[in-house]
Input
Amino acid sequence: MGRKPKAQTKLSSRSRRKAIKQKETQSLPSTLQSGEMEEVSEREETTNEEKAIVVRGREAVREVLEMVAQMPYPGVGLRTIAGILRGETRANWLSYIARTESWGVFFPNPLPVVESFIRDLIRSGYLEGSHFIRLTERGQRVLENQETPSVRRRLKLVSRKVRPLLWKLLLLRARLVNERKAPGLFKDEVLLQLLEKQPTTLDELKQIKGVGEFIVQRLGEEIIQLINSFRSNAKNEGKNSAGTGSNA
Output
């Protein structure tokens, strides 16, 4: 009489697991929650091109596949792939980073989210392997535009137009880490705001959340110089492209 029925105990355990899963899902970005994982439309893939940070599905798949395709045989590990795509700079990864322009493309996403996205591509047959991740024939067909990737997740991407600036900022942070000059103050949130707002004066830099007097005094001039140089190069490239188009 005093014993708890087995069925009730199992139901309670199942309910607890369900509650934990719901809590984990709620901690993910809204674009990755299970209720939001719908097929990405063509229109969504081509809007908001002017933004520094965009949300993409198919383009995110291609970024992963292109990076994996550029890695040396027999491939590299999943954690390495995810770390490079998220913009990490480990000394033993430098040769891999030099091979790809996808370094840091997933910088706005937490590392576990990037790893989960790559596992989805393995389950879908675009990638294969456990210790070494390699491209499959299906993944190759996507890169050759012979197949459109079927994707139900979207990730935040750094748009192609601001990636050169991201690379400069990541290298600056890596240098600070090596020199042990307050690298903890140059956080991800600060880098993302620099990409989006691109301050060109010290007064504008001070308006960035997380940028204090220490950063302004020690790194301010260098940061402004990096941004102004990037904007100047982008402007010149725009003029050259316009000139080439008119001559054609």
Observations:
- The beta strands are 53-56, 127-128, 134-135, 155-158.
